[in-house]
Write a structure and sequence with these properties.
The relative contact order is 0.13. Helix content is about 25%, strand content about 30%. The chain has 3 domains: about 1-75 and about 175-220, T-fold, CATH 3.10.520.10; about 80-165, ApbE-like superfamily (T-fold, Orthogonal Bundle); about 225-350, ApbE-like domains (T-fold, Roll), CATH 3.10.520.10. Helix 3 (about 100-115) runs parallel beside helix 7 (about 290-305) and helix 6 packs antiparallel against helix 7. The strands form 6 sheets. The chain has a 9-stranded antiparallel β-sheet, covered by helices on one side. By secondary structure, the chain is α+β, with helices and mostly antiparallel strands.
Length: about 350
């Protein structure tokens, strides 16, 4: 679908065309902000862009659909013919030929896993199933959790080449859902760059990347959700000055969970324990030039909890905002790098 203006659920205010009335020169129109919306990866995507040189929205949409289809064929665990499903279903431990995209994501995940002390893990899918996040919603026994936990781990994946990946045990599988939408955002932005477009906002499932500015040199404005279950409200507005690529990615525990016997179980699982996290950290927002890295870290920091997340973000100089539950209220925590002249953060009254 192609629209004029901007209609992303996270995004960024409408473009306002300003017509300056000048003597003898009449009215000069600014370039218009165009928006393309569609469905991908079980969610939506939005692209807003403008360019002084005319690039038809139909051309941008066609390129976007090609990029998303390629990602789907390579990385989707919801289609039987994808490359990642082939790798997961194979019962061999020798190195297998896989798409370079899968190797790239495993490489990034290995780094994030090591720096998050093993909290982040792409092989964790069996634990999701065990805990009932496939829709069965059941609490497993401690022995079943421990047995399953022993069968996962990023150290069981070996990168053997740019397109070669091996697993230590034949039943190891990979799920890139915690990083793929950020990666998709990056590839969509690259497709825009190939078309000569350098002013844009790209969003896939809430993972967002901006570059340049809006027509007239206006800032991009990005909304961060208030961490409330069952409703949607804005907590912060981030105004990003025109410039190089910058992503804003938020992950939270407040949307996906189930309650059993008076206890709440989050979909964020700690690979080190094999169980849902039990701390009070509700959401993590990461601002980073690379949306793939931001996507992975938003999940990893959410897994770690407030204290460890702040320690890691300080060590790595990451711009991070944390929202932690405090009874019926919440507390906000910011890493030192979150204070940056490139962006301004505005609170939205309740």
């Amino acid at each position: 679908m192609i629209l004029s203006g901007l209609s992303s659920r996270l995004a960024v205010g409408l473009a306002i065309g300003i017509c300056s009335l000048l003597a003898l020169s009449g009215c000069s129109d600014e370039p218009q902000l165009l928006t393309i919306t569609g469905f991908a990866q079980g969610t939506t995507y939005n692209i807003s862009y403008w360019t002084a040189d005319s690039v038809p929205a139909e051309t941008v949409e066609a390129h976007a659909e090609q990029v998303l289809e390629k990602i789907d064929v390579e990385l989707s665990t919801y289609r039987d013919d994808s490359d990642i499903v082939d790798f997961n279903n194979s019962r061999v431990t020798e190195a297998q030929v896989v798409p370079a995209s899968l190797v790239d994501l495993v490489r990034i995940a290995k780094t994030v896993s090591a720096q998050s002390h093993g909290c982040y893990d792409l092989t964790i899918r069996p634990l999701f199933t065990l805990w009932g996040f496939d829709g069965t919603f059941r609490v497993p026994s401690a022995s079943a959790v421990e047995e399953t936990r022993r069968r996962i781990g990023m150290d069981r994946l070996t990168i053997a080449g740019p397109t070669l990946l091996a697993k230590a045990e034949a039943d190891i599988g990979i799920d890139v859902s915690s990083i793929a939408q950020g990666y998709s955002t990056a590839l969509l932005a690259a497709a825009l760059e190939d078309l000569g477009i350098t002013n844009y906002l790209v969003e896939v499932g809430g993972e967002l990347l901006v570059k340049g500015g809006k027509p007239g040199g206006e800032d991009w404005r990005v909304a961060i959700e208030r961490p409330l279950a069952g409703e949607r409200a804005i907590q912060k507005i981030v105004e990003i000055e025109p410039g190089g690529a910058l992503s804003v990615v938020t992950s939270g525990t407040y949307r996906h969970y189930y309650d059993e016997a008076g206890k709440r179980y989050s979909h964020i699982l700690d690979a080190r324990t094999g169980s849902p996290v039990t701390h009070d950290l509700l959401s993590v927002t990461v601002i980073h030039p690379d949306p793939t890295i931001a996507d992975a870290w938003s999940t990893a920091l959410l897994c770690l909890g407030t204290k460890a997340a702040l320690e890691v973000s300080r060590k790595l100089d990451m711009a991070v905002m944390l929202v932690e539950a405090d009874g019926d209220e919440w507390r906000e925590h910011f890493s030192p790098a979150f204070e940056n002249p490139r962006w301004q953060v505005q609170a939205v009254p309740e």
